[in-house]
Design goal:
single chain, 139 residues, alpha+beta
Length: 139
Amino acid sequence: MNCPACTRPLTALHIEGVEVDACHGGCGGLWFDNFELKRFDEPHESSAWEQTMVTVDAEVVVDHAAKRTCPRCAVIMQRNFYSAQRRAQVDTCPQCGGNWLDCGELAQIRAEFLAKAVRVSTKERPVLNQHLRWFVSEE
């Protein structure tokens, strides 16, 4: 498979039993097959990313506005926000469900989940409970 951002060959990385394809020595992007990204998107899920080094070639120029083609099935991918915070965008294949992340987007996604966890833990009462108070009798 080739990188959808810079067209270099992708290198298979094996992280905790999951094969992730990386643009090693190119733009540094990552390809996750369907449902694989869910295994690594939250900071508490895996510490293996800290030991994984994907080298990036500073000479490679990536057009972030360009539409990407799925490296697995050659379908044009759809760009969407990964979480409700609407900070990190990923390219998702509508056919196979795979996800392409540009360099640094996985760290951004993991940071969003960490920030959300901190905000929720500091609240006395989650917002959802305020809406449900009418259905629960308080004593």
